[in-house]
Amino acid sequence: MDLSVINPILLIAALMSAATPILLAATGELVVERAGVLNLGVEGMMIVGAICGFAIAVESGSPLFGFFAAAVGGALLSLLFAFLTQVTLANQVASGLALTLFGLGLSALIGQSYVGIKPPRLPDLNFGLLGDVPIIGPVLFSHNLILYFGLALVAAVWAMLKYTRVGLVLRAVGENHDAAHALGYKVVRIRTLAIMFGGACAGMGGAYISLIRVPQWTEGMTAGVGWIALALVVFASWKPWRVLLGAYLFGGITQLQLNLQGAGVAIPVEYLAMSPYVITIVVLVILSADKSAAPGSLGRTFHASN
Amino acid sequence: MTHLLSLTGLTKAYPGVVANDNVSLHIEPGEVHALLGENGAGKSTLVKMIYGLVRPDSGEMRLHDAPFAPPEPRAARAAGVGMVFQHFSLFDALSVAENIALGMEDAPKMRELSEQIRQVSDTYGLPLSPDRIVGDLSAGERQRVEIIRCLLQAPKLLVMDEPTSVLTPQEVEILFKTLRKLSGEGTSILYISHKLEEIRTLCDAATILRLGKVVGHCIPRETTARDMAEMMVGKVLTSPKRSGVTPGNPILELSGVSLPSPSAFGMPLRDISLTLCEGEILGIGGVAGNGQDELLAALSGERPARAGMITFKGQDIGPAGPNRRRGMGLLAAPEERLGHAAAPDMSLTENAMLTGAVREDLEQGGFLKWPAARAFADRIIASFDVRTPGPANAARSLSGGNLQKFVIGREVLQRPDVLVVNQPTWGVDASAAAAIRQSLLDLATKGAAVIVISQDLDELMEISDRFAALNEGRLSEPRITKGLTVEQIGLMMGGAHGMEVAHV
Fold first, then answer.
1. Boundary residue ending a domain (B176, B198, B233)
2. pTM of the entire structure?
3. Which structural domain range is residue A225 located in?
4. B319 and B188: one domain?
5. B90 in A contact zone (CB under 8 Å)
C-alpha cells in the first residue's frame, strides 16, 4: 500500500468534475421540488440528455452545441411528464418512474449508431496567469465551461429562491398550491416551467457524463446518477448550497475510493465502492436534523376547483 | 346616488346546481354589509365572482358605476377589492412579510415592506411582527396577516369570509374595532358570517341568500337574530330544549392527565383533572390549538394515557386503546370530518363499520357483516336526516353539514355512556347545527354524559351545564354555565393571548 501516489491537488480537481453531473441534475430537481412536483424521471432525462448531447456534438463538431441540445432534449422529455402530471393529473410517482424507463429505452434507440465513436473534446478554459498559481491554479482554474456553469447555477438558484419575486412565487406554489391559486398565481404554468428547467438541467448533467467524464456513448451509461441526485435533494433539505456540498462530498469520496483502490488499501473493494453512498447520506442526514421540512405540496396533484 | 359596488342579476350555474340565481346586491361606500346564508346558499360563489376567481354566466357587476368583470384576482385587487379568506390562503413555511408580498401586485423590497407592515399594524391596532414564520402563529394572528395584506393595498371594498370563527371574544372585539375604523375611513366591508349576534352589532345592512337566491334584505340592528335565522333557513326554528336533569353519579374521572405534545405544532396536556357525572353536558371552550385535539385523543384512546390517569365506571382505562374504551361505552367523534372522523373515499357503510363494529356487533370472528353495517348506516341516515342518495356513497360526496350529522349520529346511535365530541357543528348550517345540538341534549337527558369541545361559545352556553376552558394544554376549573359573563369566559380562556388591547 502506497498512499503517496494519491495527489491531493489532482484529487480535488477530479472530484469537482466527478460531482458536476449530479450537481446539475440535483439543482434542477431542487427547483422542481420547490415548486411542489416530485419528478422521479431524473435518470431518464439525464440519459436522454446524454445521447442528445453526444449525437449533436458529434454531428456538429461543437461540444457546446451538444450541451445546448442536451438541455433541449431533457426539457422536451420533461414536457411529457408535465403533460401527464399537470394536465391529465396523473400520479407523479408513477409518471416519473415511467419517464425513467422510457428515457432509457429511447436513448438506447437513438444511440445505436453512436457506439464506439469519440466525441469532440470541450477544452478547459484558459485563465492565463491564474492557472499557474500553485495549488489554487490546478484546483480552481483548470476546468471546462460547463463545470463553472454548474457552480454558477447553484448560486443563481439560491439567489433566485431567496431574493427574487419569481423565487417567492415558486416557493409559494410548492408550499400550498391552493393558496397560491386563490391569490391568482398560475400553478400549472409555473410548475410546467419548473419541470422544464429541471429537465434541461438533468439533460446537461447527462451530457457532461457522455461528453466529458466518459467521452463515449454506451447504453445506460448514467448508471444511477439520477437517483443519487434525487436522494441528494431530499437529504440536502431542499437547500442549494447543501446540494453542492452533497455533490462534492459524493464526487470526492468516489474519486478518493478509486485512488485508494489504486493504492491497494487493504479494504475489500465492495466496501470502498459503497462508501460514497453511505458517507454522503450519513453526512446529509446529520445536516438535515434541523427543522427544515419538505415543500408542503410536494407530490400532491393540483386540481383547480372553482 | 352611486353605489360602490352593485351586482345585478348575477347567475352562475354548475352542472346539476344553480349556485347563484339572479342575485342583486348593492354596497354603499363605507358600509358594512352582511351576506347571510346557510352552507350551500351560494355565498362563496358570489364572493368568488366579485374577487375574480369565478366568472358569472350572466348578470352585471359595476364598481364605482363602471362595468367590473375581473378575469382574475389580480384584476380585482387592482380595482380595489381585497379579500380575507376563511382557509387556504397562507403559506406556513414562509414569513409574514413573504406571505404579504405574495398577495401584492408590485411588492416593494422586503425591508420597506416590513416597515409598511409595522406601520399598518400600529395604525389599526393589529400587532404583528413581519419576520415571524406563519406556521408558528395563532389563528387570530394568521387572520391579521391576511387583513394587513389587504389593507396595504388600500382597498375600497374588503370581503371577509367568516372571520371570527377562530377568535376569542377579546380578539373579536379588536377585529371589530379595526373594521369600524376602516368603515369610518370610507372602506366598505362585505361581511360573511352566520353568527347573527355579530352581524347585529357590526353591520349596517344585510342581504340574505337561500339556495342561490336573494330572499331578503334587512337592517340587522332593527331585526332580531331569530327573524334573520328564519329568513336564512326558510322555516321556523326551534331552539334546542332539554328537560332538566339532575346530574347522577360520577362516571368518568381524569386525574392529573399529562401527555407530551404529539408533534412539533401540537400542545402537551398539562395536569388535567375533571369529574364527569351521568346526565351532564360539559362544555370545553378555548382558542383552537390549545390542546383540544390532544384532549380528545387522550379521551378516545388514540393516545393512551398512563395507568391511573383515567377512570371510567370505576375501572382504570388509562392505557386502554380505543376499541376497549368503545366496548365499555366511551365514544368519541373528532373534529376533522374528512380524514379523522370519517375516511373520505370510503362509503358511508364502510365508515359506519369503522367505528360501529365493536358496539353494534358488525363483525364475527374477523369477518364483516355487511348487511348489518348497511342497516346501521341506513339507520343513521334516517334518524339524523342525512341528505344523501344512499349509504353506498363516498363520505367525501356529502356536504359538510350532512357528513357532520352522519358522524355525530353514528356515535349517538351506539348508545354511549360517555360521548366526547370536538367541534360538533363547525361549518354546519343553522338547522343542521340545531339538530346536532338537540341530539346531544337528548343523549344527556337519557342519562349519558357528554363532553362538547367547541370554539363556538354561543353553542357551549346554549347546551352545556358546566363550562371549562383549555389554555396552553391546561383545563380551567369547570364552572356552572348559567350566569357566566363573556368577560369571565374570556379570562378563563386566557384573555387575548399575549396581545395588548388595541389602541385604535
1. B233
2. 0.71
3. 3-287
4. no
5. yes
Are B264 and B129 members of one domain?
A: no
Instruction: Using an 8 Å CB-CB cutoff, list chain A residues near B153.
Output: none
Cell digits for A17? 468534475
Pairing of strands B367-368, B418-422: unpaired
Picking from A182, A291, A296, the nearest residue to B89 by CB comes out as: A182
Does some domain include residue A305? Answer: no
Residue B276's domain is classified under what CATH number? 3.40.50.300
C-alpha cell at A111: 444511440
Same domain, B162 and B214: yes
Helix axes A225-235, A269-287, angle to 10 degrees: 30
Long-range Cβ contact pairs of B368-375 (< 8 A, separation 24 or more): B373/B349, B374/B349
CB contact under 8 A, A182 and B107: no
Query: What residues in A contact B91, CB-CB < 8 Å?
Result: 171-172, 175-176, 179-180, 296
Q: Count other C-beta atoms under 10 Å from residue A74's C-beta.
A: 37
The residues that bridge with B315 in the sheet, in sequence order, are: B312
Averaged over A125-145, what is the pLDDT? 83
Q: pLDDT digit string (tens) for B35-56?
A: 888 766 788 888 888 988 888 9
Same domain, B101 and B222: yes
| ipTM score over 0.95, yes or no | no
**Please, which residues 243-302 of chain A have a Cβ atom closer than 8 Å to chain B?**
291, 293, 295-296
In this structure, what C-alpha cell is assigned to residue B338? 374528512
Which of A182, A183, A293 has the CB atom closest to B93's CB atom? A293
- What total number of domains does chain B contain? 2
Q: What angle do CA B458, B460, B465 make, to 5 degrees?
A: 130
Query: Residue B140 is part of which domain span?
Result: 5-233
Give the mutation candidate from A183, A185, A298 for the B interface (greatest B CB count, under 10 A).
A183
Asked whether the beta carbons of B444 and B280 are under 8 A apart, the reply is yes
Q: What is the pLDDT of residues B138-191, one digit of tens each?
A: 777 888 888 888 888 888 999 988 777 667 777 788 888 888 988 998 899 999
Q: What is the mean pLDDT of residues B399-424?
A: 89
**Closest partner residue to A184 among B74, B98, B101, by Cβ?**
B74
For B47-97, the pLDDT digits (tens) are 888 988 888 999 889 888 888 888 888 888 888 898 887 665 788 888 899
Q: Within this chain, do residues B217 and B278 fall inside the same structural domain, yes or no?
A: no
Q: Give the list of residues 6+ apart from residue A156 with CB closer than 8 angstroms, or none.
A: none
Query: From the candidates B88, B149, B161, which should be mutated to test the interface with A, based on the most A CB atoms within 10 A?
Result: B88
CB contact (8 A) between residue B91 and residue A184: no
Among the candidates B189, B206, B233, a domain finishes at B233
